[in-house]
Amino acid sequence: MGVTAAAAHQQPPEVGRTPEAIRAALLPEERDAFDADCRHALGQAVERSSLQPVHDVLDHWRRIATVTRHDPAAHRRMLARVDQTLAGQPPQRLHTWDELRTERGL
């Protein structure tokens, strides 16, 4: 079954605002980074006597969790491309618009 244009443009499902909800919506391979960021933010909160670092980290990871929940496979592909780029591997060659139109008979 294909995806309709309307379904493709739907907003990703909402992720709760608690650390537990955010962590649950992340890919397993990202949870350690989330935990480390939360621990660091808690330390910053103590040093600054402000919860703003915690709010900032949770907002950042909530955006990632929302995108992940919308399309986990696409998020994994993006992470793989980042890893390849950081390892100095050139990205796979992308098609030009002309190549895509030709390939699809347009």
From TrEMBL:
Residue span of region Disordered: 86-106
InterPro entries: DUF6247
Highest rank taxon of the organism: Bacteria
Biased segments, Basic and acidic residues type: 95-106
Pfam families xrefs: DUF6247
Name of the protein: Uncharacterized protein
Organism from which the protein derives: Saccharothrix espanaensis (strain ATCC 51144 / DSM 44229 / JCM 9112 / NBRC 15066 / NRRL 15764)
